[in-house]
Specification:
The protein has one helix and eight strands. The chain is an alpha+beta fold and 137 residues long.
Amino acid sequence: MRLLKKSLATAVATLALVAGGAFTAAPASAAGYNGACGAGYGVVNAAQVPNNLGTVFLTYNNSNGYHCAVTIRNNPGPSVHMDVWLRRAGDPSSLQQDMGVYISYAGPVYVYGRGSCMQWGGSIDGNEVNPISLPCN
């Protein structure tokens, strides 16, 4: 019985260390979508900003037909130039863009896009995501 208790205690301690390690072992640069677009928006695509600086996320809301884009830094810190943009493909007048000096993210920007192809992109500190076209929805 004593051996069983000791083995159980060792197993629990090991499990706690492994679980704790899972949280600390995750890279700090694994920034996820931060929900900036609001309720009802789900990520449909994402593109990494060069030099592991962050990610540009494209989201969509099925209930209202709007797309939303946001650029999120992996490691927020001192303010840097950031931007995010979104438009319907072939419709320059639909362009929505947010650019400025930010700590953690640029955006969100919204464009109605039900049944439309979307183009989107962004940048962090001069590192630009090439314009991306999403297949029509």
